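Sequence dictates fold. Next comes a concrete instance:
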Amino acid sequence: WVMMNRDDTEYFAWDDNKPRDSNFAVIFLIQFGTWMLIFTNFVPISLIVTLEVVKFCQAFFITWDEKIHHAENDLPAGVHSSNLNEELGQIQYVFSDKTGTLTCNIMEFKKISIGGVTYGLTEFASSDNLARKQGISNVGFYDPKFNNHLTDYNHPNSTQIKKVLRLLSLCHTVLVQEKDGRRIFQASSPDELALANGALFLGSEFVGIDREGFMKINFLGRDENYELLNILEFTSTRKRMSVIVRDESQNIKLLSKGADSIIISRLADPDSQLVRVSNEHLEEYAVDGLRTLMLAEKSIPEDVYREWNERYQKAMTSILDREILCDQLADEIERDLQLLGATAIEDKLQPNVGATLAALRNTGIKVWVLTGDKIETAINIGFSCELLNYDLHQLIIDEEAHDAVAKKLKEYCEKRENSKSKAALVISGHSLLHALKEDLADSLMNLAQTCDVVIACRVSPKQKAEVVRMVRHRLPGIVTLAIGDGANDVNMITEAHIGVGISGLEGQQAVRASDYAIGQFSFLKRLLFVHGREAYRRNSILVCYNFYKNVIFVIPHLWFAFVSAFSGQPLYDPWIYQFYNVAYTSLPIFLYSVFDRETPCLDDLEDRQDLYQEGMNKKGFNTLVFWKWVLYAFTQAMYITVFCFGSFSVTGKEASGHMDGFWTAGHVIYGAVVIVVNSKLLHFSLSHFWFTILGVLLSIILYFSSLAIFSEIPNADITGISTGVFGNPYTYLSLLLISGLSGMIDMIFWRHSYKILDFLFAASPKTEEQFTSANPSTKPMRITVDEKDSSFMSLTASEVMTHKRHTGFAFSQEAGHAP
């Protein structure tokens, strides 16, 4: 058509100095390239900049939020990776540590078992807390019979008590500082601090280590010196720590404490009556939610120690495989131990942990707790924090053999296949070791998906990361979040899509490795339901809107092409063309993405689980939503083009009678697009402030002002068109009709809510009662007895107590290694 009608289409301003090319391929390439250049503006390059700036501003609002500011430690929320803001609104799986994350990580020495006798009352009057009166922290121990047995030299347990107190005073890496005439312990973990202070309260005070390497203790008022020979440090693999000392009688002793499962396997007589009784005491402590460890010692002959120490020192200086060699030698010497007793430490729950976990579960978020505690401890903490209840069937897997684990998984999967009841899976570390293997991982994942809660007990840091990796690998479409407070949680935090670190007592390793940092677990609810939800909603619309406004801006060229022989003739002046994304449409969407609110008071969102589920189900941004925006832009571009060209085809300049040129019509189209895309922000915004409305008005005014200025530049393509644009009444009629039609379509088809806050201040917060009464569908979901499946009986409280007993540990030697 171009070649045939070239002589009759002088208005296209063909260049007659160039030869007419009749080659179809050449013309096709030229035209194709022309249209490709026009359509490059489909992709909003400015979107990247706008989105990054918006996320950066959203991060500031998170850090400024007083509701997630930990006032006790003056810790505001921290944002280390603002690129993940919208993913906070799409979380489907939460992986949490327990100690220091769900609990305060402020340990109190509560009970102790020595020689088959348990000491420490569960409940006593605050006036009986002698440790607090003496200014000793981390101790909540009271039992009059302890001192009676200790001071009664004829009592059969007196000697054992003294051995335990000496062990607690020597088997550690605590440092002593003098402050105001008092000795202050500096420990690498809260557990160590509680044990050292517990020994101090019971009569054995660690004084310090001198320059010659002698450990000094004050035992029942008498100074004793012990030469420190070796420290066999705690690791997450060893699950124990030991020291080798020489006493004043030149006897060499190994003192050890650690996980009961580890210590028992190294005892000279693991089947003794003392071991059985101590195990019963440990189970009682675990039922109370206490963290436990076992204590043992061993005498080493001088010649045996000398020969072992030579090999150990050589291993310490080895360049290759130093850690492996040292662990092997430590394992060799830590054998044939004599059991002394066991300790129990309490770690209290953080405030509002139960309400936060309940909100997560009611929303449909799967909660997995990965802890190093024994199963009984984890179960009882689960009940106390409302993660578990008696309407949840407990599926416990604590098998050690691979075949036994496979059989248990198959059994539970078959029972859960057609069951509608809610369940909680509790699995131990040694069972998880087999379940994570390739042949059982699918069964574990299938079973876990039928459960509301998963608790993995006695797991190592490596296993925590493997669990997160398994879920991500087998459910690629979900978004995961891991939260922890210690170095042992770093692998888990970095493996999840989003890592949240809690600034606790175990150092800052987890915070430094995380994407977001908060002061306590309960802040996670507001971080997800308020900031995550709002960031997801706003950013989803921001992305779609940027494509929408570019499509509606470019597509008029396509509709114009039907009457311009698809020549690729642009409608807009190239200078004004470049200002579209920079000046005319950038400010309103930026203000929307930063300040828009779904509810008048953001606090209401914390109780709107239904709104958060939109992000979990990807309702705000998906393929269908994206193409809905694009199709809408195509439709609007069509009637904008038709209205504008139709108006200017029946009118012209009064003086000359000539029709206005396509430049005039094109820039009226440009103006209509600017008005429509900016006005649309007012339509789908859920809240309006004076500055957001002002931003829309300024953007529209800026376009018409710049058009008037550019039209006065001499020898330009659009010189003088301001007369045709501003002096023609059809311009205003077209813009009015287009704006009205667009507004009607928005209200009819887009179903946006129109909520107007007052222009200067946000509305006053609603109370929870007012909110739920106005929105009865948003009442929190509750699990009732009627929902139970009679075909699969849940465990009662007594059944939890009488179920097969489990053992584990709750001890940390190094900072960040508490389970």
The longest helix spans residues 523-561. Residues 752-819 have pLDDT under 50 and may be disordered.
